[in-house]
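Technical appendix A lists one of the benchmark inputs used to test multi-chain prediction within the project. The record comprises four sequence entries:
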Amino acid sequence: MVRKLGAFVALSGDELCVLDKLHKRRRTFVAGRDLVHQGQSDESAYILVSGWACSYKLLQDGQRQIVDFQIPGDFLGLRSVVLQISDHSIEPVTDIEVTEVMATDILEAFANTPRLAMAVLWAASRDEAMVVEHLVDIGRRNADQRTAHFLLELGARLALVGLGTKAGYACPLTQYLLADALGLSAIHVNRVLRKLREGGMVTIRDGFVTFDNYDRMVEFAEFDPVYLDQVGPLLR
Amino acid sequence: MVRKLGAFVALSGDELCVLDKLHKRRRTFVAGRDLVHQGQSDESAYILVSGWACSYKLLQDGQRQIVDFQIPGDFLGLRSVVLQISDHSIEPVTDIEVTEVMATDILEAFANTPRLAMAVLWAASRDEAMVVEHLVDIGRRNADQRTAHFLLELGARLALVGLGTKAGYACPLTQYLLADALGLSAIHVNRVLRKLREGGMVTIRDGFVTFDNYDRMVEFAEFDPVYLDQVGPLLR
DNA sequence: CGGAGGGTTGATTCCCCTCAAAATCAGTGG
DNA sequence: CCACTGATTTTGAGGGGAATCAACCCTCCG
């Protein structure tokens, strides 16, 4: 997390110290039990240490839309703290480890450490950029391209934190979870994955995503990771 | 704009002064000509004074997905400044008036005025919440509910800045623009609007959206505006 | 008066959903 | 060791919602 924020704002020793004090309490949650409920107002946010989580919204008819998956290093529930109310739910996909950060501490740290606030604003903007890309994915790409694009994006994000390469990555997502994220039915996801596999692009097996032909897949999905890139600190 | 930020953080005279100095230059742009191009790196952001704009992404095959419409009081291109590069384009829907704010000034103001940074973080979070709702709209609602929900959301946002009521609002969007925002074809948007009109819910005519039965429409679209609400200042 | 932009309607096609049913696998308890 | 259960993946058949193609209308405007 420090590395991620540090990529944007060169943090001073003082600021790192403030950041350090934020890490209040380490907690674990089991897969499938919500951390945050839609409509609840939150006292704390979390930073994901290990495992995967997802943020989603439920509709009245029981359908759900997964907005994003969180991987180690990501914030959980930051927006809920800033907006004072959670407009979405968060569920661990696997058992997860997190460090809890109290809402009051966050707000106080921001007020006293402007560059830290800036760094978090950057992190929030990057999150928003990912949601936007996801929106384009669902709105304008067909099921095949959409799925391919999504798997590539996950891979790129995981690679940034050392959990994946162009060869592939470990991925605990079931086809049901993929379906809820992609706005498809689980059955159709299965067919799409078969087509991608038979097209020699990607294979998902036993919790591993393997890129059989990364370059062809990038071209097929029109994948362009500019929005994930960050060359160096903006503020020194 | 001041009113909007002030709703979240009670700003001091000093902070208002900084805010005041930010408003560097008033500019106008004509409808249809991009303010910001995808991939360009930006020197300045804008605050929309009058008129409507939209932010969108283009795909290689010429399709586009409109991510959001901006109405008076909204930021334009804030994310581009924070991330140093624009991952999307912005186009005025109508002729617009904006005030330009230089990127360097923004970053400096944030560093010196933490509460201001906090206020902008809040604004960014609210924008993200709207994109998320839009994502759910496209991912999990059928065309009818999706369109209804979208028109209600626009109405609620316009009402917040005094440009609309539960009776309706002035809306310069063509069916083509609606289609690009909703992930539908313009032809289908036309059919959907007819159905909503014949269902006695909403009528669009001559640039005016008229809610024929607001309550029925809210129920039909499962519209819940929590994510737009903000009761009072969080920080005093 | 011709052309452009926007709205409306019909016919046809196809992508993806729904329903239905196996197959596989991990865990669990007898 | 095996029956049983639940979760997940896989495959098939049929239907529907939205796209596409193709017109036609209107208004505005140079």
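Residues 142-143, 184-185, 187-188, 191 of chain A lie near DNA strand C (CB under 10 Å from a C1'). The first strand of chain A starts at residue 25 and ends at 29. Comparable benchmark entries are summarised in Table A2.
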